[in-house]
Amino acid sequence: MKHFLMAAAFGLALAGAKAAPLDFVNPLMGTASKPELSNGNTYPAVGLPWGMNYWTAQTGKMGNGWTYTYDADRIRGFKQTHQPSPWMNDYGQFAIMPVTGNKRFTQDDRASWFSHKAEVARPDYYRVYLADSDVGAELTPTERAAQFRFTFPKTEQAWVVVDAFDKGSYVKVIPAERKIVGYSTRYARGPLPNFRNWFVIQFDKAFRTSEVWDGDKIIAGALEAQVQHAGAIVGFSTGAGERVGMRVASSFISLEQAERNLAQEIGNDDFDATRAKAGKRWNAVLGRVEVKGGSVDQQRTFYSSLYRMVQFPNKLYELDAAGQPIHWSPYNGQVLPGRMFAGTGFWDTFRALYPFLNLMYPSINREMQEGLVNDFKEGGWLPEWSSPGYANVMIGNNSASVVAEAWLKGLRGYDIETLWQALVHGANNAGPIQAVGRAGIEDYKRLGYVPIDAGIKESAARTLEYAYDDFAIYQLGKALGKPQSEIAVYAERARNYRKLFDPESGLMRGKNRDGSFQTPFNPFKWGDAFTEGNSWHYTWSVFHDVAGLVELMGGRQSFVDKLDAVWTLPPVFDESYYGEVIHEIREMQIAGMGQYAHGNQPIQHMIYLYDYAGAPWKTQYWAREVMNRLYRPTPDGYCGDEDNGQTSAWYVFSSLGFYPVTPSSPQYALGAPLFPEAVLHLENGRSVRIRAPGNSDARRYVAALRIDGKAVTRNWIGHDELLRGARLDFRMSAQPNLRRGIREQDAPYSFSTDPTAPPAPVERH
After folding, report:
1. Strand 119-122 to strand 325-328: parallel, antiparallel, or no bridges (unpaired)?
2. C-alpha distances in Å from residue 666, one per residue of 85, 473, 602, 717, 723
């Protein structure tokens, strides 16, 4: 292993030459997870930002969504993955594994013990020592390809296993070309018409032996197999420390396209050249945000979170011979021109992930909007969860927020008229599955809410999210110059949240078709009328009209008291809807923060609602508490599912000192920075500079704020202010400033206080 260890030392020396953003990333953050308790539910993804493919060491068995868990002790292979979360599982996967000694190719037989002490996980590079085979394994990625380097001992029995997985697969060994090709058809969520993930694997050493296998048996005399579970195993004679290199690429389109991806992305580059390019790309993307000061762990948490934010949705498109984007469509199975992305749930990511893309990476979101156009054209609906096509999970119609926000925040250069048609279609029709369009739409249109007794699960949560989505549609319609006769209905529906407010409890509550509230009512009951939460979590889901919610609750003091109660109530729960304690419940229970359930998305914006009620110092206090107590750059570093960048985006936004409570509004609610200094390098060439000298855990409160030299007391900053390039100077204090940000005009945007909004209809009781 001498040569392997020298190579590893060289890699670490490169990383340590100068601390770059990439060097602070820990891809193992969040990997100490299991179905019963999530500390992130992540895996160490080796790839490029928004790349089509990622690679990970595979500790779980084939088909197990927990593909890599930190407490595992054996690696079964290095898997190409497109998995957005363990709950969604994977598609288009295959694995590669080096072994020595007896010919071993099934997932259990080829598995090798490993130690984290002999493992290096970085976004651009992964290495590990496979103890059972005495092999060092390294890999480094491109967007659709990768290079492997295996360092073998002296042996006549060195092998590389290729596993195309079950559910129908194909392999072919071509010894004369030192090549293995094939495809996998395994996917977790479908149907996926004409789905194949083609791959090509090019070796730099000739094979001594070549065989293919089916399940657990070698197919005698064959070099090709199209069976339920196909694989290949090729053998070598190796000297001590000899490296065997492999170049791998894949395609959802064809074998020819996989070969093209290999040529376009790796070409004649050696392993180190590919790694250098990958590192440069990561540093360019992560380096768009510089944070200075704070502890090393805070910087590691920041950049590890940012790393998670720039992975999904990942590219589903490829480049043809002319360099033009083309894609296989998960909706109709055809190969078509244009871009497409997959692997995200808008229920999670509309909240903060997409707002961050719009601020810091608008060009990639512009591509994503092009992809949404194609989703609608090819499938008839916008996806709410794509993996890679329509997945029937979660609720809401939050594609409306994702589409509206992008245009309202200045993105251009794509077919917004088709997306407008898609939003109108989705907002007024029930889809073929409950997770596209709007389940319960006829009742929603007639009554203004989805009734609890209408046979639609999680009806109150749907109503609240539909109301916000209608606000987003109305705002986009106004920006596009649509006539009031067409868009007024969305302004009216945006107020539908009011119909579920129960004055008796001061909380949101399910309602029956006859107008009566659901009885009995337990505000601590998870599920039922709500989604992965209870009434204490979902009551705050009035993203667009917090002032209206303040008014319903009886004014500012009553509102603040209600917010405070979330922290002081005991973490009791009623899990009867699920029949078991789901992991989201357990994560709330053990966090020691009362009813606050940061490990799931519905309540994550709640901390910033103090800004709307004249108590911004409470936002500042609790945001810091959550950052301090619930995030760390370790395998147990998250407090629930990371969820495609959303839980990470909360941390990144909060550590910069602001948060997008209302994504489709051009304002951010202010908190307080975590770091003494940060610089945002915007795509337009301007910079946002955030300074908070003397900032510390003890000095977490904002005594005063100047924006571009002007003192401000408001609890928000505008998107346009940031885009022009801004300087935010925070004066921090150990004591809260109880006189700052307390006026009603200091509050961020609310629909009910918008003078341009249509008047609310008279409510009848």
Report:
1. unpaired
2. 30, 14, 21, 9, 11
| Structure tokens given for 180 | 């293995």
Name the DSSP class of 290.
E
pLDDT in tens, 344-380: 999 999 999 999 999 999 999 999 999 999 999 999 9
Q: How many residues does the chain have?
A: 765
The Cα 463–Cα 395 span in angstroms is: 10
- Residue 610 DSSP one-character state: G
Instruction: Read off the tokens for 574.
Output: 């009623």
CB 508 within 8 A of CB 535: yes
Is residue 449 within 8 A of residue 467, CB to CB? The reply is no
Q: What is the mean pLDDT of the chain?
A: 96
Distance between CA 343 and CA 487 in Å, rounded?
31
Other residues' Cβ atoms within 10 Å of the Cβ of residue 520: 5
Q: For 304-342, what is each residue's pLDDT tens digit?
A: 999 999 999 999 999 999 999 999 999 999 999 999 999
- Beta strand spans in 338-459 (E): 341-342, 344-345, 385-386
H-helix or E-strand containing 197?
Answer: strand 197-203
Q: Which amino acid is at 38?
A: S
Residue indicated by tokens 């100077």: 729
Q: Are 217 and 266 in contact (CB under 8 A)?
A: no
Measuring CA to CA, how many Å separate 759 from each of 489, 492, 547?
A: 12, 9, 15
Q: What angle do CA 275, 110, 41 make, to 5 degrees?
A: 60
> Measured between alpha carbons, how far is 170 from 631 in angstroms, rounded to an integer?
43
The confidence score (pLDDT) of residue 634 equals 98
- ∠ Cα 151 157 159 (to 5°): 60
Residue 713 has a pLDDT of: 98
Q: What is residue 473's predicted lDDT score, i.e. its pLDDT? A: 98
Query: What letter represents residue 742's amino acid?
Result: I
Give residue 12's pLDDT. Answer: 43
Measure the CA–CA gap between 171 and 198, rounded to whole angstroms.
Answer: 10
Which amino acid is present at 668? Y
Q: What is the pLDDT averaged over residues 731-738? A: 98
How many Cα atoms within 13 Å fall on the side-chain side of residue 269? Answer: 23
Instruction: Say how far apart CA 159 and CA 209 lie, in whole Å.
Output: 9
Residue with tokens 């500079």: 689
What separation in angstroms does the CA of 104 have from each of 40, 232, 543, 608, 705?
33, 11, 55, 55, 65
Retrieve residue 508's tokens: 């949101």
Q: Report residue 535 as tokens.
A: 């009434």
Given this model, what pLDDT does residue 11 score? 42
At 298, list the tokens: 């805070």
1 band by pLDDT with thresholds 50, 70 and 90: low
DSSP-assigned states of every residue in 246-277: EEEEEESS-HHHHHHHHHHHTTT--HHHHHHH
Name the β-bridge partners of 733.
701
pLDDT in tens, 224-235: 999 999 999 999
Residue 273 has pLDDT above 90, yes or no: yes
Residue 48 has pLDDT above 50, yes or no: yes
Which residues make Cβ contacts (< 8 Å) with residue 763, sequence separation at least 6? Answer: 498
Residue 262's pLDDT is 98
Please give the model's pTM, rounded to 2 decimal places: 0.97
Residues in contact with 486: Cβ distance below 8 Å, sequence separation at least 6, in sequence order: 477
Measured CA to CA, the distance from residue 12 to residue 136 in angstroms comes to: 15
Model pLDDT, residue 762: 66
**H-state helical runs in 631-659:** 646-656
| Average pLDDT of span 712-731 | 98
Could you give the CA distance from residue 354 to residue 544 in angstroms, rounded to a whole number? 16
Angle at 562 between CA 37 and CA 499, to 5 degrees: 95
Q: How many CB atoms lie within 10 A of CB 519?
A: 9
